[in-house]
């Protein structure tokens, strides 16, 4: 990371203030006003929309492998998703991913 | 019969198991943050002031990717937009509390606290406003110290982890572990699939802006499928 300390702190405080504003919004200021249905529908999908888009390139083109696809990391990603989907448990998902990655990095 | 004291105790008991879920995430964020080059104070700054693991990891990843500051903020806050929904759905239950209490509750409004509390309020419609506030605080009390403490532990451990060992892949693993259990409906799966495809297809766009387009298209996909087929 090459950002200077003031920039990093700016990001931390900006994210803190923004997150608080989002959480405080209806509880604190907007009161009982109803959000339009379409807007609520969009909000429901923000995490599953933003996060996969963010990490897909990291899985497919990992920088640690010179930006080329790498079997260990791809298999690890598949293991996390499968375990997470089946068990609905974050802990097992992480464990599956780490195990497959360690094995994969040894084998390949 | 429910006094504020019993409401607090009930909240504490309901919240305690979730402290265990928070542990790996807090540790991971601490380790990844210091690995990425943040100081311990900055890592703790994130966890104490923001308290939102997914948004924090997003910010750190984009900072590592040298994304411009406003893209870092915009994308990380987008991850937190779901909390506007929490805020709106808690309003009927907690809206009558004094402003300072609502401010405090907003600071502590994390995924686990929302999910636990809203279910409890629905099942116990006779609770007074004070009991609801106290219950919420009870839920959060076992979770927050664990979040802070294990972030610190992770930050200290992270400084000790040498490069290599596939530590670069901790972020994708953490995110995938967070997202996979959230694939509850076809709409969620379709949204994630669009996000993956467009996230890859638009990765060439400068300053991580492709991410924003991919996420918008994915949100629209999820929302539209829900409206047409699941509503």
Structure description:
The complex is a heterodimer of chains A (108) and B (231). Chain A has 108 residues and is an all-alpha fold. Chain A has helices at residues 5-30, 37-44, 46-60, 71-87, 90-107. In chain A, α4 runs antiparallel to α5. With 231 residues, chain B is an all-alpha fold. Chain B is globular. Chain B starts with a helix and ends with a helix. Chains A and B meet through α1, α2, α3, α4 and α5 of A and α1, α2, α3, α4 and α5 of B.
Mind sketching the topology for me?
The complex is a heterodimer of chains A (108) and B (231).
Chain A: H1 5-30, H2 37-44, H3 46-60, H4 71-87, H5 90-107
Chain B: H1 4-36, H2 40-49, H3 53-64, H4 69-80, H5 82-94, H6 99-107, H7 111-123, H8 129-140, H9 143-160, H10 170-179, H11 186-201, H12 209-230
Helix pairs in contact in B: 1-2, 1-3, 1-7, 1-8, 1-9, 2-9, 3-4, 5-7, 7-8, 11-12
Main beta sheet of chain B: none
Which two chains share the most extensive interface?
A: A-B, 77 and 97 residues
Q: Quickly count the helices of chain B.
A: 12
Structural class by secondary-structure content of chain A: mainly alpha
How helical, in percent, are the residues of chain B? over 70%
Computed over alpha carbons, the radius of gyration of chain B is 19 Å
SSE pattern of chain A: HHHHH
Tell me the strand percentage band of chain A: under 5%
| Average residue-wise pLDDT of chain B | 90
Total helical segments of chain A:
5
Please describe the biggest sheet of chain A, giving its number of strands, its sense, and whether it closes into a barrel.
none
Number of strands of chain B: 0
Strand content of chain B is under 5%
N-C termini distance of chain A = 29 Å
| Low-confidence runs of chain A | none
Summarize, please:
The complex is a heterodimer of chains A (108) and B (231). With 108 residues, chain A is an all-alpha fold.
Can you tag this structure with a few keywords?
heterodimer, A: 108 residues, mainly alpha, 5 helices, B: 231 residues, 12 helices, globular
């Amino acid at each position: 990371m090459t950002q200077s300390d003031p920039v990093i702190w700016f990001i931390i405080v900006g994210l803190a203030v923004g997150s608080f504003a989002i959480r405080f919004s209806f509880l604190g200021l907007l009161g009982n006003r109803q959000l339009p249905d379409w807007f609520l529908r969009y909000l429901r999908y923000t995490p599953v929309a933003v996060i996969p888009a963010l990490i897909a390139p990291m899985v497919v083109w990992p920088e640690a492998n010179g930006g080329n696809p790498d079997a260990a990391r791809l298999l690890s990603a598949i293991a996390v998703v499968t375990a997470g989907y089946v068990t609905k448990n974050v802990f097992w998902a992480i464990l599956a991913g780490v195990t497959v990655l360690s094995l994969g990095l040894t084998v390949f | 019969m429910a006094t504020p004291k019993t409401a607090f105790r009930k909240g504490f008991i309901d919240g305690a198991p979730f402290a265990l879920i928070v542990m790996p995430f807090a540790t991971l964020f601490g380790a990844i943050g210091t690995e990425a080059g943040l100081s311990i104070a900055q890592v703790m700054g994130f966890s104490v002031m923001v308290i939102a693991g997914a948004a924090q990891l997003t910010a750190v990843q984009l900072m590592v990717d040298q994304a411009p500051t406003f893209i870092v903020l915009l994308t990380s806050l987008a991850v937190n937009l779901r909390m506007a929904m929490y805020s709106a759905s808690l309003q009927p239950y907690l809206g009558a509390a004094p402003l300072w209490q609502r401010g405090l509750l907003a600071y502590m409004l994390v995924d686990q606290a929302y999910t636990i509390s809203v279910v409890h309020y629905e099942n116990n419609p006779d609770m007074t406003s004070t009991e609801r506030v106290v219950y919420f605080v009870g839920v959060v009390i076992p979770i927050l110290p664990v979040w802070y403490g294990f972030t610190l532990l992770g930050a200290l451990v992270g400084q000790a982890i040498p490069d290599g060992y596939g530590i670069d892949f901790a972020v994708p693993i953490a995110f995938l572990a967070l997202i996979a259990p959230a694939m509850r409906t076809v709409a969620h799966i379709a949204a994630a699939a669009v996000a993956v495809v467009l996230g890859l297809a638009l990765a060439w766009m400068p300053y991580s802006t492709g991410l924003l387009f991919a996420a918008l298209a994915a949100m629209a996909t999820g929302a539209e499928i829900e409206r047409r087929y699941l509503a």
